[in-house]
Amino acid sequence: MMPDIKTVMLLYFIINIINTGAMAVIWSQNRGRFAGISFWLVGLAMQAAGPLLLVLRGLIPDLISMTGSNTIVLAGILIIFMGLERFTGKKGRQIHNYALLAVFIAVSAYFVVVQPNLMVRDIAVTAVIMIYTFQCCWLLLRRVDPGMRQITRLTGIVFAVFAAFSLARIILTVIIPEQSSDFFNSGAVNSLAITGYILLNICLIISLALMVSRRLLADVKTQEEKFTTAFRSSPYAIILIKMSDGTIFEVNDSFVNITGYQYAEIKGKTILDMHLWVREEDRRAVFSELAQGREMHGMQYQFRDKAGKELIGLFSANLITVNNETCILSSIGDITGHKHMEEELQESGKKYQALVENINDVFYTLDTQGNITYVSPVVEHFTRYKVSDLIGKPFTPLIYPDDLPGLLDSLNRLASGQLEPWEFRILDKDGRVIFVRTSSRPLYKDGEIVGFTALMTDITERKQLEQKLEEMATHDFLTGLPNRVLLHDRFNIAAALAHRNKARLAVMSLDLDNFKSINDTLGHAAGDQVLKAVSTRLTGIIRASDTLARIGGDEFILVMLESNHINNASTIAQKILDAFAEPLLIDGQRVHLSTSTGIAIYPEDAEDMETLIKKSDAAMYYSKAHGRNQFKFFGDGDVRVSGHI
After folding, report:
1. Are 137 and 126 in contact (CB under 8 A)?
2. Which of 65, 198, 431, 534 is most exposed by smallest CB count within 10 Å?
3. Which stretches of 457-601 are DSSP H helices?
4. Residue 525: inside a domain
5. Could you give the CA distance from residue 609 to residue 124 in angstroms, rounded to a whole number?
6. Count H helices, E strands: the chain?
7. What CATH number has the domain bearing residue 320?
8. Boundary of a domain, candidates 228, 263, 296
9. How far apart are CA 286 and CA 297, in angstroms?
10. Angle formed by the axes of helices 149-175 and 188-233, to 10°?
């Protein structure tokens, strides 16, 4: 026996939430490596949001529940496709896909509002899914470069099955029409289709994870090949030595050329046998530093070649593990021709400066006291400060005060060798808040940290998008009031405080009297304006510590904190009734409203949110049935709740 569609849709929502969580892990681990993964995360999040709107049908308007949910799902697939284009480096124009989505919205809205027809809506949404997933399939199997198809093939096949499955659903929908115009009672075809999409979504997240893993493995292999090539072809003398006994593992051609030793003469020898260091104390100091886990960069030491000729080498070294053996990887650049090297360094400095001054991100350096020693000119566009205003000044006044302690802690970790990017806020010259992401490294001189270099990127738009998505998840879209999710969170906190302080809470259910007549006579747009105006008026009455939420239609829930006396709740309830004595002005018309209110008290009436709402609802319906424009406490004795609590 097939489960009912509402159960399947709830399962669809749960699976998509799990998929979004899995993608969030993949994103957090790889966001700095590959483009497009953030698009996948947003797209999968929208895949989860769409079914939720459909499950909420009856609590929210049909247009949002049906057209809105399907639009979010389709937009999520399109965003995933755009992410795949960025991941594969095949970014294209999307105007045709935007147009297709707009056509779908118009068709779906028509067959929801004007001429309700479930079969047409199902065919429309499935057709767009088929088109979008086929584009994903074509991208991954044909458009990508041949060398990358081995990585993208599995995900491309999953999208091919997506497209084929969608085509099959369209055919079955035509052959076997829905049994009802109500989606939740429409029959086996839709139930099977949603079940199929659940399985395909699971396959998709697995294939995306495998695709990222294969890309990582390919990059690792490429890096290994680059290392081998760099080792062999490097102009610097490179030598690999065992840390334990100084035995030489391997050297490159440049080492042979610079020192005059042949490979046969080096094999099996130790660094002591070579007499490479002119000063033995220099060698011991280097080994001591490396043994303590410190890296060596750009140190100048004297070396001798096979013939005994001394040369000055620019020395760098760090520890690596080869076949479970700790080894020293060292490079020596012959800088004996000092004048020639000075000219090369000067030219390199000019190129470095040109690069730093022309990138879009802000490059800057700090001394160990946190004073700015250099900042690239782009900072003037970034923060509106002139370069001359910043050089020599501490960087801390630029930091948003709340973020300063965390930033100082990050700098302390950086000074101890823990390299990590971090995000914080800064203030520009006009006080505008800018979200930034900074990657930084210590500057060394003679083995000591003398400052820090950093690259700062503006991520304000990304942060604003994240905040908007969070607000959409916890607030009512029309009034901006908290929704049921946020209401439950705040109630749980308030109930815990009330329990600890032996205090009371009051839960009020408010329902506008005869609100339906406003929609019928003035229209839904005017009704929306009424709800906004009511929300504003109610918010002006309650305290800042209380929570007013809109949970659907013209229904509101108010949670009052620290209501130690029943008169507190009565006072607020009476203020609400009095507030509705003044008519609302909507589109130039005076609208007279009243409200019926029911009140339940925590913990006397109940200790959990759902039961308190049921009881306050019962009291509210009692008020409505006995004359409206009044409030009633559940505990008065006349109120009863139908059904089992």
Report:
1. no
2. 431
3. 460-474, 484-501, 515-522, 524-539, 566-579
4. yes
5. 40
6. 22, 17
7. 3.30.450.20
8. 228
9. 11
10. 170
